[in-house]
Amino acid sequence: ANSDSWQNFDMLGVDIDLNSPRSGKDTYPEYFYWNTMNADNGFAKKWWERLYGYIFSCNVIIDRADSDKAEWVSEQEKNAVVGEVRFLRAFAYRFLGNMWGNAPIVLKETTAPRFDYQSATQDEIYQKCKEDLWFAGQWMPEIDDQKGGRASNLAARHLLSEILICMKDYEGAIEQATAVINHSSMG
């Protein structure tokens, strides 16, 4: 829908508060008052549902990667796919952690209704992101080997540097960011 286009946070990133659409009057719409956002707010609910939809899809792929029905050319191919998926899952969790602080961590495919979700702390979310991104950075293809606009291991290292900043591991963040900046394809 036309009214939906600018509301897609995943296209605008986490700095949507810097976006400037206004209502007919000279006031900001409700979604710019972050302190009033809750589960009843349709804008926030859309983000929450979409992020957990991404996480669900990622968990399906990760959990089924070792299935008898999954056919891989090599262990390296499987780990590259799982690495890319763990990168995408970390992207979603980083957004949840940044926006809400606490949120449930779901690491397995949900195959039946559940009502027992427990919120994890922001630090626990960032730790899970770090684990996923560390794996992703080891297995995702190099930027020059990645085709079709898909993310490379440099994207994983960049996102890992952001997570390490959130975790106050500044030396680790500098190490990851420097590796991206100094990569031969970046010059």
Your description of this structure?
By secondary structure, this protein is mostly helical. It is built from six helices and two strands. α2 runs antiparallel to α3 (75-100). A two-stranded antiparallel ribbon has the order 1-2. It has helices spanning 9-12, 42-64, 75-100, 122-139, 153-166, 170-181; strands spanning 103-104, 119-120.
Helical content stands at 40-55%
How does the major sheet shape up?
2 strands, antiparallel
Strand order of the largest sheet: 1-2
Q: What structural category arises from helix and sheet content?
A: mainly alpha
Strand content: under 5%
Mean pLDDT: 84
Shape, please?
Answer: globular
Low-confidence stretches: none
How many whole angstroms does the radius of gyration measure? 18 Å
Number of continuous helical runs: 6
Count of DSSP strands: 2
Q: What is the terminal separation in angstroms?
A: 40 Å
Could you spell the SSE succession in H and E letters? HHHEEHHH
